[in-house]
Amino acid sequence: MSEPAGVAIEHVSFGYGATRVLDGVSLDIRKGEFFAFLGPSGSGKTTLLRLVAGFGTPDSGRILIGGRDATRQPPWARNVGLVFQNYALWPHMTVAENVAFGLQRRRVPRAERDRRVRAALDLVGLAQLMDRRPAQLSGGQQQRVAIARTLAIEPEVLLLDEPLSNLDAGLRAGVRAELVELQRRLGLTTILVTHDQEEANAAADRMAVLNDGKVLQVGRPSELYDRPASRFVAGFLGTANLIEGRVDGGAFQAGGARLPLPPGVAAGPAVLALRPQALRLLREGDATLPARVLRAEFLGGHVRYTLEAGEALTLVAEEPHLRGLDPLPPGAPVGVAIDASQATLLRA
Ligand code: ADP
């Protein structure tokens, strides 16, 4: 295998005609890390990945791979491997022939080719199926062949474009775990494009949240979840209460209710972001905030409550479900205890 390489994306902008798709994107992807581009559909993730692969040239900015300026290099000169969403295996070829295909085109000599095909199939655990045709494999196995085909070219960077989206939900988590395990074992720099936050959270060491062609925030998944820097990131990564109000007298005032805040917050209009699990429901005793149940949704492992507090404040709270703890009915009075250390204050 080749030495993994880091990828530096510097001030990259790109458009299709007059439509700007990427707007001044800068990212530093470290050698050996599993990095995700996460964002809603149309945010520019695939376009950015394709520029790293060499399919297209930025209108401005640079892309460095392993410290070398690759901005104007064609794909075949970059030594990056791209695995598509639609893995497009040749149906008439065996697994081994599919994996060998790219090596033949690169004129890798026969003996070396056989060795690399074998090694790549060993890595994805499919060596014993090398004589089968794609139709004789499960969706997850076909995806592993597509990955083996890319690993066989011994890339410095592995690029994955929504690699799990064609698998049914039951298979996805398993194939994802295998992919992460493989990446850790190889220590291969990997960039994953996905719109699925759970996928990015589970796989990535770090990720960038993109929207409208811009990078909004970069960090470890738990860092972004715990400390979102904007309403978009707070709302895109899981459920968040995004409450508009004012910081006044050391508390947050919204909809006729007073919520606690961490100390030292400057007064003025703001948005308070609170995860549903940061609100604890008290059936009796003291609480920060009296409220009423509007709706309870039983979701198996937890119950999601929609609550009303003050005059017009709607809050979502989640409580782990345990046997014997019946969901509260609509109309039930509850107390809400809010842990101020879990609150994030955003600019209005
Ligand atoms: P994502 O991968 O985040 O869903 P894409 O990078 O595929 O986003 O697309 C970003 C934007 O660029 C979208 O608005 C899309 O419609 C537009 N776009 C993508 N490919 C083309 C193309 N070949 N020609 C014109 N516009 C395109």
Task: Explain what the structure shows.
The chain has 348 residues and is of the alpha+beta class. The chain folds into two domains: 7-232, Rossmann fold, CATH 3.40.50.300; 239-347, Nucleic acid-binding proteins (OB fold (Dihydrolipoamide Acetyltransferase, E2P)). The chain has eight helices and 20 strands. The strands form four sheets. It has a six-stranded mixed beta sheet with strand order 6-7-8-3-9-10, with helices on both faces. Strands 13-12-11-14-20 form a five-stranded antiparallel beta sheet. Helix 2 runs parallel beside helix 4 (139-151) and helix 3 crosses helix 4. The mean pLDDT is 92. This is ABC transporter ATP-binding protein.
What is the CATH class of the largest domain?
Alpha Beta
Distance separating the two termini = 50 Å
Tally the beta strands: 20
The helix/strand series, from N terminus to C terminus, equals: EEEHEEEHHHEHEHEEHHEEEEEEEEEE
- What fraction of residues sit in β-strands? 35-45%
Count of distinct structural domains:
2
Domain ABC transporter: 7-237
Keywords: ATP-binding, Nucleotide-binding, Transport
GO biological process, one term: quaternary ammonium group transport
GO cellular component, one term: ATP-binding cassette (ABC) transporter complex
